[in-house]
Amino acid sequence: MDRAQKQELVSKLSEVFSSAGVVVVTHYSGLDVAKMTDLRSRLRENGASFKVTKNRLTKLALAKTDKGPLSDLFTGPTGIGYSDDPVAAPKVLVKFAKENDNLIILGGMMGEMVLDENAVRDLAALPSLDELHGKLVSLLSAPATKIAGVLQAPAGQLARVFGAYGAIETA
Question: Which of 14, 23, 68 is nearest to 43 (CA)?
C-alpha cells in the first residue's frame, strides 16, 4: 500500500468515525472467511457495516475526529462495526459474538460517549429505531381506533332497535 492509498484510507476512516451513530470495536482473530462473510451480510441486512482495520492508520484517522478515546482499543486484529442507527451494529455484533467465541467485543463509542463491553451489550438489548417507530405508530393509532369504535356503536345499536321493531310489526 503506497502513501496515497494510506492517506485515502485514513480519510475514509475519519469520515466513517465522524458520521456513524455508533462504532463498535472488536477482535476477530480466528474467524474464517465464511464467518466474516456471514457477519458482514447480517450487518448489511440491518443497515450496518464491518471493516477490518489497520491499527496505525485507524489511530491516525481517530485523531482527526471526536472519537479519539477509542484509539486505546486498537491493538491486535481489530475490526469495527458501525451504523447510523445506534442499536443496529451492537445488536448484530453481540448476537454474532454469542454464537462465535472468536469475535470479541472490546468497546465502542456512541456520539461522544465511550462504551465499554457491557455498555455495548446493554445498547444491543434496546429496541431498534424501526421497532420504536412501529410502537409509536401503534400507540398513536390506538386512540383513533377506539374513538371510531365508540362512534359506530350507537349507530349499530339504533339499527338493531329498528330491526327488532320492524320484526315485531311484521309479525
Answer: 23
What is the pTM for the complete model shown? 0.73
104 burial class (0-12, 13-18, 19+ CB within 10 angstroms)?
middle
Is 135 exposed, middle or buried, given 0-12, 13-18 or 19+ CB atoms closer than 10 A?
exposed
Integer Cα distance of 165 and 6 in angstroms? 88
Amino acid at 131: E
Does the structure show a pLDDT above 90 at 36? yes
User: Are 95 and 128 within 8 A, CB to CB?
Assistant: no
pLDDT for 63-83, tens place per residue? 888 888 888 889 889 999 999
Question: Using CA atoms, how far apart are residues 120 and 113, in angstroms rounded to an integer?
Answer: 11
What CATH topology corresponds to 3-126? Alpha-Beta Plaits (3.30.70)
What pLDDT shows up at residue 136? 76
85/20 Cα distance (integer angstroms) = 8
Grid cell listed for 13: 476512516
What is the amino acid identity at position 170? T
Higher pLDDT, 90 or 141: 90
What does the mean pLDDT of the chain come to?
84
| All three cell numbers of 45 | 441486512
